[in-house]
């Protein structure tokens, strides 16, 4: 081999050596960019999955709550209608004086029957979560009571319920019907916040 041939081969050999080296540095930069893109996409997909999972859980809870509410409050419409039956039983009992019962066995038996019917009705209400609102002697509560009048009574703390005209009822934690009440005024002020009972 002559010197010229050796000189010709040397640059070719050098360029051949540099070729693969140049190629090996270029792809890692492209691979790093591609890897970063894939990691960003994976992170986004993870977030999307977590969001979808949370949304599904919220929907499940909401549907469970709605189903529970439907079960608990399904009787509310019929309960409102039956409350008038309880009112009429109470009115019937209140209209019979105790002295009239003593002198009349038939009236006493009838009154006892009406009392038993009222007790059974109220027990049935309890089984379905229907409870009478406490009113007589209680502090007026606009969430449970409806003030129909104010009554001058200096012996009572102002804002105390002194007359119940119609019983109120709740169904579980919801008000079915407010108690219609008369509220004391003119007595000592209560230590708490004054409640507006104006009608």
UniProtKB/TrEMBL annotation:
Known partners and oligomeric status: Homodimer.
Disordered, as annotated region: 1-33
Chief location category: cytoplasm
Any one GO cellular component localisation term in the record: cytoplasm
Secretion signal, residue range per the UniProt entry: none
Keyword Nucleus: no
The organism's taxonomic lineage, starting at the top: Bacteria, Pseudomonadati, Pseudomonadota, Alphaproteobacteria, Rhodospirillales
Protein name: Protein GrpE
Annotated organism of origin: Paramagnetospirillum caucaseum
Biased composition annotated in UniProt, kind: Low complexity: 20-32
């Amino acid at each position: 081999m002559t010197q010229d041939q050796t000189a010709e081969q040397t640059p070719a050999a050098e360029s051949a050596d540099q070729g693969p080296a140049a190629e090996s540095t270029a792809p890692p930069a492209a691979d790093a960019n591609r890897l970063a893109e894939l990691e960003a996409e994976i992170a986004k997909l993870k977030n999307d999955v977590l969001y979808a999972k949370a949304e599904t859980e919220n929907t499940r809870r909401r549907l469970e709550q709605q189903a529970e509410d439907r079960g608990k409050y399904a009787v509310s419409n019929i309960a409102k209608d039956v409350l008038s039956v309880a009112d009429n039983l109470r009115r019937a009992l209140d209209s019979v004086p105790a002295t009239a019962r003593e002198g009349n066995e038939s009236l006493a038996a009838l009154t006892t029957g009406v009392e038993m019917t009222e007790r059974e009705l109220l027990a049935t209400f309890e089984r379905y979560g229907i409870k009478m609102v406490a009113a007589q002697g209680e502090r007026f509560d606009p969430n449970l009571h409806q003030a129909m009048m104010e009554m001058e009574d200096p012996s009572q703390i102002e804002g105390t319920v002194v007359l119940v005209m119609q019983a109120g009822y709740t169904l579980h934690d919801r008000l079915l019907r407010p108690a219609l009440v008369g509220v004391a005024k003119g007595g000592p002020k209560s230590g708490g916040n004054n409640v507006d009972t104006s009608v």
